[in-house]
Amino acid sequence: MEADPTLRLRVFDLNCWAIRYLSKRRQERVRLIGDTLRREGFDLVLLQEVWSERDYRDLKAKLGGCYPFSHYFRSGVIGSGLCVFSKFPILDTLLYQYSLNGYPYMLQHGDWFCGKSVGLVIIKISGIIFNVYVTHLHAEYCREKDAYLPHRLVQAWELAQFIRHTSKAADVVLLGGDLNMHPEDVGIRLLRGWTGLRDAFAEATRFEGCEDGCTLVPNNCFTVKAELLPFPLGIRIDYILYKAISSFTVKCEELKTTTGTAPGMDIPFSDHEAVMATLHIQKQGQAVGAGLGAAELTLVDVVTEARTEVGVGLRAAQRQRYSAGRMAVLAALGVLAGLAAGQPFPKLSFSLLAFLAVGVLLLSTGLHLFHTMEVKMLQGTEEQMRMALRVLQERLSDG
Amino acid sequence: MEADPTLRLRVFDLNCWAIRYLSKRRQERVRLIGDTLRREGFDLVLLQEVWSERDYRDLKAKLGGCYPFSHYFRSGVIGSGLCVFSKFPILDTLLYQYSLNGYPYMLQHGDWFCGKSVGLVIIKISGIIFNVYVTHLHAEYCREKDAYLPHRLVQAWELAQFIRHTSKAADVVLLGGDLNMHPEDVGIRLLRGWTGLRDAFAEATRFEGCEDGCTLVPNNCFTVKAELLPFPLGIRIDYILYKAISSFTVKCEELKTTTGTAPGMDIPFSDHEAVMATLHIQKQGQAVGAGLGAAELTLVDVVTEARTEVGVGLRAAQRQRYSAGRMAVLAALGVLAGLAAGQPFPKLSFSLLAFLAVGVLLLSTGLHLFHTMEVKMLQGTEEQMRMALRVLQERLSDG
């Protein structure tokens, strides 16, 4: 490969849906994923939702011969679920945790308890520096009334900022992961616009797999069919994105997805389809300058749109903070009134009421603190976006 | 300044100790800090422990004329306490939260509740890109038996990694803040070695201020005298560090500290002394290559030493995780036994015992989760350090 002026890189990306005790046929699927990765011999493997460190260690043991380098990103109590396997040496790693990740009281979704984050590994292949990012953003759950949109936008913004700030010495940037957004969503447009990353599916010379490149499809036996009712073909929410920074070009020769079942098997790898890209990286004569123009104008629109959505989320968070605060004050007054009045009720009901009032007080205080933090993070993101718009507009008026 | 081949930059750094309801004479001191900053007209002001956003807004209103650009880093419920005022436009910002920050049950120290983090602002002055970092690491509290050393080392490592990964397009890197470590401590040596940052105090041509550059001194009326008993001169824990990345050189012409009271006043700005540096930045003919040699060998030693300390912390955390887990199991058994036995005790003592058992169960489960997270973060850091040592040793054997 050293002698070849063109580097060919095969990348595998999959949300593995490997949650102990919860995901169906987990061990069987993890074994299947491991067997396939060993057989196919990709150059780079980016996995999400490997929540159990034991699953990672099993994969590592199985893949050691084919992928001698790997990294598991640890974070929070549960972990980040992110890991990378590589044929080439990993030189360095860094993990960044998103500041917002859903609501603690949405227990059925559980996102809040997982340390959603973005992992960076730096890999050098034939003298070319690759900054490889793997991430998993907050899920959508309900497209019509998407309460999580502002949180996902904050995550998309933080992801874009983290990539921009850490990739300045890279020759090539790769991002793989479950972004939980449709290709035309404002978060994807923001991420792509603000980082300059290109979508391997849109750029691919050849494509093979689910129609429209969908990665959550009805004919995968593990997907929840009701959630996909509005989308008969499925949805595309798992991505491989890339760009060349300095004097390199990257082209996507081929993009593939699995199609509901693992190749040659009777069950799928996961409830998500795997995305597999073959990239061509070539050195070119001179560095491409960052030209101004149409792209910048579109970017101003996208950042403005995202900022508006974050503003909507901010006002909702401010309302919720106020409600939780008022509830806490009322509960505190209730507790005090009960104490002052002695025991006007029979003993048992009094104890129950006191318990209830104290419970409500604790809960609403906790909620108030949570929404206070949420307000701060949304304000911070809105301010950063405002700063970005100022800088963009200055560049446009200068250029 | 555009025409001058040498750029002269005056930097001010201070831990403001501005905690509402807790810090003595806070409002008076914040006013004093604002007045001095306006009068002195520094180029860059890096503040820590500005916990109240209202204090920031008051400063911003007062300093708008002299420092038209500023940024307050929001994070967590309480915030990061970090802010920056600048004469020159701030182009971009990024905040990174450390993964470990003391113990939730050490209520008297309270660090756990503050979102300890490092803020980055990017500033362009006369075409030179400055990456300016401001941070505040976990305090020490007890030097003899420093239970927080592993956490502070994780923070120092994460700070160094964050600076390395985000500063690759910078011409000059500046770091100001309360690092809560003595100059010879392993954390400072790790930070300096791993980033290449130099200590303005050690490099300064002229120095004026507290002996040995101390920033926590006995003749500051707000310092806790008992804590400084082993150090009659005080200790130096607030720093301005710098380095030039590309074809620039930075020199520290002058370093000053306040000396217990604010210049011309009868009270100090804070319980910490302010650090003020005058830096000379000059373009030089060619970029300085990253030479191998003595520095790399020292670095191997420092990273090894830090890794040993993190390993000690890891084993302590594993023991504490085990104890908390065992306690949780015992408490759960107690609750179950009580339920099974009916009420062998008089009613009141039974209720009290049940309450106690449930309380212990909740508490020990919480502790178990916390130490699980602590173990993961310490393991993660140890692994990153091992990777760093591998890369360093490969470079040494290649070079």
Please explain how this structure is put together.
The structure is a homodimer of 399-residue chains. Chain A is an alpha+beta fold and 399 residues long. In chain A, 39% of the residues lie in helices and 23% in strands. The first copy, chain A, contains 7 helices and 13 strands. In chain A, strands 3-4-2-1-13-12-10 form a 7-stranded mixed sheet. In chain A, strands 5-6-7-8-11-9 form a 6-stranded mixed sheet. The longest helix of chain A is centred in the C-terminal third of the chain and has 52 residues, at 347-398. At the A-B interface, strand 5, helix 3 and helix 7 of A face strand 5, helix 3 and helix 7 of B.
Describe, in short, the structure shown.
Two copies of one chain form a homodimer. With 399 residues, chain A is α+β, with helices and mostly antiparallel strands.
